[in-house]
Structure formats: structure tokens, C-alpha cells
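Lab channel / #folding
Pinned by the channel admin:
"Please post every new chain as: sequence first, then the C-alpha cells as a reply. Keep commentary short and put observations after the output so the thread stays searchable."

First post following the new format, from NK:
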Amino acid sequence: MDEARAREILAAAGLSTSDTGGPATDGPEPRLLALGENAVFALGELVVKIGRGAELLPRAERELALADWLAATDIPAVRSAEPKPRLVDGHPVTLWHRLPEAVRPAEPRDLAPLLRRIHALPEPDGFTLPRRDLLGGVERWLRLAGDAVAPADADFLRERRDAFAPAAAALTPHLTPGPIHGDALPRNVHVGPDGPVLVDLETFSSDLREHDLVVLALSRDRYGLDPAAHDAFTEAYGWDVREWEGCAVLRGARETASCAWVAQHAPTNPRALAEFERRVTSLREGDPEVRWYPF
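Reply from TO:
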């Protein structure tokens, strides 16, 4: 799904100002905010998320239920504008209330207090959180990549997936398992006038709390996060996951997933292909310090 296709879906859903002129869509044309696992548009007072395929509908339904649960538990997070997703031309579409403009960029230290609150939550009533299937998307992402990536590289990532999945399942946690965000990065925090707010709830899970902490440890090692910023995060959270013997396993699983995730963009984006090749080569060579770039 590219931007043009996403805009076609917006129009089919009646969410394009050029097509409707309805009260929810008065004003400028939808503005693309992100194009990754979802296409995300700002539309007046709304944010619209469009999933890549119908198979993501259950996840969209769960994300909306999560938003209601977090509102009931008073966790600062995005709030839904419609209780159920729409299925438009085979794509799940969800509507969200747009947050006020950010007062500054989010930092790792903004994330830590939110994670502490999430990690103190019990399991929700009314619906079940899935396990954090970090590697579950690998096959779908490689399938979307098709012939754009070398078959040997795709097979290499499948072999890594098959090795890390049972290793991760066998880990003994340091923290009590339970609800987690699942993709705990500063980009998923919005610092508005009332403070930090969680966004992007689609990876919420019930699993090892360490999943949420390995993310920034990997950012420090692979993506150039300032070590001082990581130190501020661990100080605010109260524990450094790198002290845990299972850290390397979760890191390896996440690296495998992150490499495969980029592959899905390779057919239409030369930058994605170059980044995929950088990542897969560093994994093949066992080099944990090759710089990766966010995509």
C-alpha cells in the first residue's frame, strides 16, 4: 500500500474532503503523517489509520478496545473517535481523536513513567491481550518483499526466527509478566501541554515486561541513541534490562523482526532495500555495532 492507494481508501470511506465536505472533514486535505505498517493521516480533528490488509482487522478491533481500557484506568493514551473499525476495500480503518500539538519532542525519560504505570496494570477485563509475538510478522513481511530481496537473505531471516522463537519462549523473567506496550520507543510518546501521552497501541500484549525495556537498549546499541539518554531512561524506570541474562535473546529476536519489517518496503523504495541489506549483512557477520537507521 502506497500513499496513492491509501488516499483511495480514505475516499472510499468518505473521509476525503475533496469527496465529501462533511462536518468531520471540513478544512484541508488529509495530511500523511506516517506510512509503515499503517498509513496514518491527519484529518481535521481526527487521525485516521489504514491497515495494510484485512488480516489486520482483529488487531484494529483490539486496539480500539485497548484505548477504552486505558481510558478507564486513567493511563494517558490516545482516545478512539469510533468504537469499531471500518473495513474499506479490504483494509481496516480506525478513527482517533487528534492530540494537541506537541510542546517538544519526546525523550526516553518521558517513556519510563508511562511504562511503569502500564507494568503495574493487571490483565484487562472483557478481552484478552495476546502474547508479544515479536517474530510473528516475519513471514508476512518477507512475502510482501517478494523478489525485491535475495532468497538467501529471506531464508537466513527465517532460520533466525526459528531459532529465536523457542529461545525467547523459554526465558525466565526478572519482572512479573503482564500488560506491555510492545513497541516502547519515544516515537510512540506524544508530549502535549498536559504531559506525555502514549500513542500506537497496536502492539499491546501480555508478556515479559522486559520486551518493553530491550527496545531502548537496542536503540542505544544499533540506532545511535545517546547513552546518557538511555541512562536517564533506566534511572527513571528503576532497572536496566541489560543486567538480565535473557537480554541478548530478546535483542536477537527483535533485530530479526526489525530486519524483516524493512523488507516489506523494498519493492517500492530503494532506501528500504539499502537499509534491509545493511541490516541483514550485519546479522550475517555477527557484528552487533553496525549502525542501523530508522525507517
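NK: DSSP finds nine helices and nine strands in the chain.
TO: also worth noting, Residues 18-25 have pLDDT under 50 and may be disordered.
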